[in-house]
# Entry
Amino acid sequence: VLHNVCPNCGGGFVPRPIRPMNNWKGDNFLGKDPASTQVKYRPVDVAAHAIFSASLKSIPPAQR
# Structure
């Protein structure tokens, strides 16, 4: 469903998501918010995520 694209930041999924170095969506990237140990619950809007992930899912997570 998510195509290895984090709906919050556009990074890839690993044991801890790889947060992107680029600002793909809503200032949610390493340059603005460094990694944290606090867990956040954010439900996904599947239709909106399909549109968001369409251009990112073909780019390897390390290059996003």
Remarks:
- The chain has a mean pLDDT of 89.
- Residues 46-53 form the longest helix (8 residues).
- The chain has one helix and no strands.
- Helices lie at 46-53.
